[in-house]
Amino acid sequence: MLLSLHAHGMTLEKRGHQLFATDIVGGDDWLNFNQAFTDPAIDTVVLVNSPGGSLWDGLRISKLIANKGYNTVAAGSCSSACSLLFMGGKERRFSNAFDPGWTYIGIHGAHNGSDGSLQMQANPEIYALLKTAMGTKFNASIVNTALYQMDDSNGLMVVPDNIRNPRAPIFHCKSGQTLPKDCTPYPDTDALSLGVITHNDLVTLVLPSAFQPSTQLLGRAQTVLLANPAAYLEAVAQQHCISARCKDNVTALQGLDDSKALAVRDAGAGAGWSSKQPSIANAVLAAVYSCNHILDRPVQLCTAEMANSFDLRHFYTEAEAEHRAKLAQLQVPTEKFYASEEFGGGFGTAQVYRIEKPMDMPLMQVQGVQTVGTQELARMLKSDTPPAAIDISGAEETIPSTSTLFFGGNAFDAPELASAFHSRFTALLKLLAPNADRPLVIFGNGRNWLSANAALRARQAGYTHVLWYRGGMEAWKRADLPSALTTVRAVAN
Q1: DSSP class of residue 98?
Q2: pLDDT (tens digit per residue) in 184-205
Q3: Torsion sign over Cα 426, 428, 433, 434
Q4: How far apart are CA 346 and CA 342, in angstroms?
Q5: At the topology level of CATH, where does 315-485 sit?
């Protein structure tokens, strides 16, 4: 989340009396909003899936909205600086444009966009704005918690759409790494009683095409449409479904709203599906997960074949070709290490999974695992006997010849959750890297505990020669080495 001193700027579009705005607050937004507000027809600002942005632009534009007497509507998520714009509205409502689980206002204190450092001295201005907007419903204790109880820049007070989801409480997480069980719920307060919204009814919206859920999947826009989605779904139901329930759910996807996705098993019958997700990427991950882990069936790898009405099958064949080409281009770099991958975190050895704050710097070693640097890994991948490589980052691109095990670095303290996850991880890993005696490289985004967790788990799953590429994609990119397209075949959680 962002409530910072630097940002890029929002996309604006006028439709009748509504001004739609999305993306990051900042840049030339003050001028752009001023220009848009010269249209006398405008009386409502619709904020669509914005993560926030510049504090100062957020404060100024919020005051401009308030002075104009405009109403505001939240479509999807509206956090940080976006919440300031929303609170400038005379009348404030949620909309039905997105699933209730993805519709909320997120409030927190200021931080610097460059380094993430907290900027508590700026919080009184946010406090004053919220107090004015909330009026007699203002709750100083809750607002102070949102603004000042932050361990890092991703601490957040989430105010959900409890009109459609009345059991969802307001909750506060001190950090972006705070486990859900450790966040503080406020079950006796909701968006209306706190004064975040002014009316408990939803606004029905027709979003402009530029504001529709993204068709981006792992950084690639989807453009290949199924010629006949209904016929395709019928064929999948007949070829991949055994139960009547599976057939009914697959064919019913045709009539469901976006975002939705369908995945089929690479071996044997079985399919997974998902709908009402915030983006095409979320839908694909959910569909592949449900396909990987069908109840009472062995775990299996899956291919996402459809998202909305897009055909994704070409995505996988293109990725295979790209991986081969990029591996052929790979040259061993001149330096052993990049992006300080060999430093930080202490000289101890990780022996247990890290559950809390997994994005912190990890120790230098993982028990029973060999740590490798960028130069050494590149040399190994170019050899006649390259290791298997598993990326747990879920980033848009990965190291050539690598398979991705999404969410493979997770860990849980509850025994039943930990046991179930370990079983899923192990089963998927054995499908992605079936030879437990072949060297296996594990890596993630960079120096954090997620990749350390996965390396330790692979060793405990019976792999005899596990290597941990501690620097991960951060070091690989810093070395200016080629990357290839990530595909979704295995989702552990």
Answers
A1: S
A2: 999 999 999 999 999 999 999 9
A3: positive
A4: 11
A5: Oxidized Rhodanese; domain 1 (3.40.250)
